[in-house]
Amino acid sequence: MDIIEQLSSALAERIAGAATSVVALKAGARPRSGILWRPDVVVTSEQVVGEQESAVIVQGGAEVAAKLAGRDPTTNVAVFRLETPLSGGLPARGAAHGAAMPRVGSLALVVGADPAGAATGRLAMVHATGPAWHSMAGGRIDTLIRLDVRLGADEGGPVLDPAGGFLGMSTSGPRRRALVIPAATIARVVDPLLEHGHIARGWLGVGLQPVAIPDSLQSATGQARGAMVLQLVANAPAQQAGVLPGDILLSVDDFRFGQHRGLASLMGPDRIGKTVMLRLLRAGEMKDIGVVIAARPRS
Fold it and tell me: CATH classification of 3-196, choosing from 3.40.190.10, 2.40.50.100, 2.40.10.120, 3.10.20.310?
């Protein structure tokens, strides 16, 4: 057997070994894939769930009803609880905390499920890796792993390294780039989603509009852009701290308005109950105001 045949055989074995960890998820117009995280819990890509509150989970032709237990758009994780547990689950290696960080150029296996719940496979190359980053919605993703494929019905399924280790969940990012939500990120949000249905986010209670800092004040403020307070939610943290409509916010701790990074990246669950320092312009004068971040009310 030559090296190509050996590689082909090894990859086929990896897909077969992952067959009991992937399910088809019928929750909308088109079936998608999901990960059997625990016998009674399925994890999938939040953005493919739509407005569905229930789903049919299919594994090897068997169908099980499931209810949406929670969703977190900031990390793109949705969790369904099954009415009847299924057998199988994630590969043992790396299931809890994820396999080792892959190298750029290494191979990855994108596992999905067809409508009958049988495993599908797609071979990808790791296009880019990096440290922790924040999604556009402000969620912290523990590791950047980008793949060189376009996803279809396999979105939401497990991604494995060539040794069968669990890297995380596949999802489509901006410009349809395939990303991996790392195992560590999923593990961090699954139990809170099962318990509370959502991940609490920090909140100041302000409506903001980007504005230019007047030329005469740019030297004093050290920046050209800020954010004007257009709206204050009654009894929200910003109003209670004394922020007024018309104030121009310059910074929140070390975050300066006008940076590429959004304010949402500072409003993670770990910031709730902590004090941040707002620097603002009011009637041409700079002021510093301490604000205690509260949990965002559920809509």
Answer: 2.40.10.120
